[in-house]
Amino acid sequence: MKSQARVVVIGGGVVGCSVLYHLARAGWTDVMLIERSELTSGSTWHAAGGFHTLNGDKDVAKLQAYTISLYKELEELSGQSCSLHLVGGVMMADTPERMDFLRQAKATGRYLGMDTELITPSEAKAMFPLMDETNFVGALWDPVEGHLDPSGTTHAYAKSAQKLGAEIVLRNRVIELNSQADGSWEVVTEQGTVKAEHVVNAAGLWAREVGHMVGVNLPVLAMEHMYLLTEDMPEVIEFNQETGRELVHVIDFKGEIYTRQERQGMLIGTYEKQCKPWSPLHTPWDFGHELLEPDLDRIADSLATGFKHFPAYEHTGIKQTINGPFTFAPDGNPLMGPVRGLTNYWTACAVMAGFSQGGGVGLALANWMIDGDPGYDVWGMDVARYGKYTTARYTNAKVREFYSRRFSIRFPNEELPAARPHMTTPLYDRMLAQNAVMGDSWGLETPLWFAPSKDEAHDIVSFHRSNDFEHIGREVRAVRNSVGVTEIANFAKYKISGSGAEAFLNRLMCNRLPKTGRVILTPMLNENGKLIGDFTITRTDKDCFMVWGSSQAQIYHMRWFEQHLPADGSVLIHNYDQLLVGLSIAGPNSRQLLQVLCDEDVSGEAFKFMDHREMEVAGSPCRVNRLTFTGDLGYEIWMEPAYQIKIYDAIMQAGKAFDIVNFGMRALLSMRLEKNFPSWFAELRPIYGPFEAGLNLFVKLDKQDFIGCDVAQKEYENGPGLRRISLIIDADDADVMGNEPIWAQVGDKEFSHITKPHGFGPSRLGTDGKEIKQQPELCDRDGNWRVVGWVTSGGYAHYVDLSMAQGYIPAELVNDESEGLFEVEILGKRYSARITIEAPFDPEGARMRG
Ligand SMILES: Cc1cc2nc3c(=O)[nH]c(=O)nc-3n(C[C@H](O)[C@H](O)[C@H](O)COP(=O)(O)OP(=O)(O)OC[C@H]3O[C@@H](n4cnc5c(N)ncnc54)[C@H](O)[C@@H]3O)c2cc1C
């Protein structure tokens, strides 16, 4: 074993081998993988080997498609077969709601270029005659699904990496990791010590323990998982002989079952409700190639449904039951990327579907390590999407919830209950007493909407407009006509101070910094000129700034801030998290209301739009910004938690004179829609440039000293390829949820940006990870209408009474002639839509500036 390497990858499962291969392929050949035992000694060896492209997160789906496209290349390079069976698969819906889910999945897949098809139960039965089709109402067919040999595939990655110069060391456990002053690592192993510039935690079942070696608690938990292998079945043999084909894969939502052909019998796996974590606190180092004790009682309910839906299974013998552990993060997606607070320590773990995701994780991580950027929108997999709130017990509850709902529908208005309430503000009980329906915002209970009675205070989950619709409308109208109050604790809040603070923020932010007492909005870009943040900043003193951003991106942003801190200690960053909470009052009477609550002049002349003040509100020390996301006259009031109840009660008391209402996040989002305001994680993501997103006002190119400035300058000079638009849609009983395709009547006109950045599918993303310039099949039958873009978010704009969406289309389509040109596909039906350049509510901004 050599004593020095540029990278040490810890773990020889499918993920570690993929990382090693991708690093070597990109030219970093001085890399080594260290494996405790033999390759595949964690979850990998007993996996069922299934792969598919669909994923609830479209960006993860894209990398899944890449993974599948890679296998042929690996086979050729390594000479090792992966035993690929690309047989296709059907997802079976047993209720109209599940059909809505499939329609939505198909619509999302459409702009990603996925070739899926909605089919009838009879058509599904023709592909899979073992089912009783009368249990189902429809299905979605995806040709890019199949299975492979897990061990062969892992060795194909490993051999390919070795051919490119990578080293693999077996039967050698990494025992200790010591960080060095120069940012490198001392990797202490059973066979000696290796000095490495970077380490990658790809330790799968032991990822948590390898995190502990450097003081990091990764939110990852292993679950027991069972699948059964049947004896040979005459029905299977007959089908194979008659058609010359294998049976397709099937996912049965109702039974939480997946099933596929294995040799001449069947494989049946379940994600049972009575699921069981494995080694929830410590993973034993001596766990090897052994299986866990099967427990068929636990999966009895799922099997009972399975026997009903696939009657042939009931009288077939079970040859073998596999029970093995594998790991999950709370949302079931991988944890990858650099870990905040550590230099050159990377994770590639919690990969629940290694054979769908392993290639994509390896590619994005290698890009990130080599180029400083993953090259894709990997937010859905970024280890920084979780914070310290993901404690071991929280993770345990959320992972169990995820596992038991693996094939369940998540409705767009559905809040999941596990591990809640976790974090609450002082107002929690008051909100519940007023019939608030609460949502989970990065672990924090946040009011979504207010029901008229206790009995009505719950969401009826649906893809269509639901029971909250009229109540959100009432909240919005009350704000716009008088005044409302809402909690805004679910923002990130930072204080950035010190003699270097101004220079530091100037380098990171696109906008000019404010004078003391003024507020600015500003995007933040990465070196590629893409959006990685969107902040509100005020200067409270010469060398002191308050910064507000997305709470979900707190760790993501802290990681970036800390990476760019000057070494001289001249900048201090304090993240308040829940040590600072907030209330927002908004609406035409909000100024009068604030005036009652304080003793200083808050008239329009004295306290202007985008002013910031440190002042007493209801006799409590606060910071107040004169702006709100409602786009109305309004104020954000920030206070320490100890004062929140007092201030809220005073607002409600004084607000009686104005018929004040509580409003929740959903009303806030409805109001921002009618103002055409974009929001972080929907319209603003690291795949868009600032001019594509329409943030021109906030990017001061003449500053010339901020990160990403050169690329932004080019985007400005060449004109953005895409443009963010707002659409008004002639929808009926359902509004967009996000990710719907936008159609346009454009004939065969070519657009360079249609498939960017969402080109999808094995034929869309080449094995070198680069986009293939080939249009996916996005035309409808007459060829006149084409999918030209995608919806990023939307819903109902209640005050202006319009169904609205935001999304991206090629810039050349945004012009005066685009009237009547567009349609948006919602739940399988296309509705006409028109661009609205002006915000439907108060386009001049007179209300917020007044
Ligand atoms: C029953 C079952 C069925 C499954 N079916 C599928 C399926 O159909 N499709 C699919 O995509 N996925 C499936 N999976 C999940 C799949 O197995 C995982 O996604 C995948 O194996 C994760 O790979 P990994 O490399 O991250 O982790 P692991 O396979 O756990 O590999 C981690 C490796 O790191 C090594 N290691 C750990 N700590 C150290 C250390 N300190 N020093 C040196 N080496 C160390 C371990 O020995 C191990 O070899 C299934 C899993 C199970 C249990």
Descriptive keywords:
alpha+beta; globular; 850 residues; binds flavin-adenine dinucleotide; 38 strands; nine-stranded mixed sheet
Description:
The strands form seven sheets. Strands 4, 5, 6, 12, 13, 14, 15, 16 and 17 form a nine-stranded mixed sheet that branches. The chain has 19 helices and 38 strands. Residues 755-777 have low confidence and may be disordered. The longest helix has 21 residues, at 58-78. With 850 residues, the protein is α+β, with helices and mostly antiparallel strands. α2 crosses α9 and α15 packs across α16 (641-655). The chain is globular, with a radius of gyration of 27 Å. The chain binds flavin-adenine dinucleotide. Flavin-adenine dinucleotide binds at residues 10-16, 34-37, 41-44, 46-51, 173-174, 202-206, 210, 225, 227, 322, 324-326, 349, 351-356.
Task: Give the strand content.
Answer: 25-35%
- Rg over CA atoms, rounded to whole Å, is 27 Å
Shape: globular
Q: Major beta sheet, specifics? A: 9 strands, mixed
Bound molecules: flavin-adenine dinucleotide
Write down the overall mean pLDDT: 93
What's the total helix number?
Answer: 19
- Outline the low-pLDDT stretches: 755-777
